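Consortium newsletter contribution from the modelling node. Members have asked for a concrete example of what our holo predictions look like. Here is one, prepared for the FE2/S2 (inorganic) cluster complex that several groups have been discussing at recent meetings.
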Amino acid sequence: MEKIETAGKPDLERIAEIVEDHREDKWPLIPVLQAVQQEFGYIPPEAIGTIARAFGLFPAEVQGVISFYEQLYTVPRGRRIVRVCRGTACHVRGGKTILKLVKQHLGVEEGESTPDLEYTLETVACIGVCALAPNIVIGAETHGNMNPKKVTKLFGERKVGPDGTG
Ligand code: FES
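And here is the predicted structure:
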């Protein structure tokens, strides 16, 4: 199971080991960033200096690479990514309401993760199954013809407390 760092300082020794594992690679930066993300679930900001020093780069250069690739993250992400489609077909069939309800159930805004790191909420332009609009995707699973009842069925057991915990 994927290890996700949820609190405290990241293990910088482990990050140094990952750097060493890739020291001989011809183009090591991306593989190191991917390996760190694989291990921690994201790239801890504290790791950037270590990685930059190891390869003779400025931290801003490493940060620039992370920012360039949409698949690299410097904040923890949920174990399950919820993507609500905001494409035209989904929009005209109530996608906006679905997004609002998912936000309410999870207690997060777009781009945020639940405090227990179970879910991260995102939106996507179109997932290519417009005939089933409105759609949402949870992990690798698409849920079509969404309506408020289905949203409740999918997320209803989550009781979001006043402090945002589920
Ligand atoms: S617009 Fe939502 S799947 Fe195409």
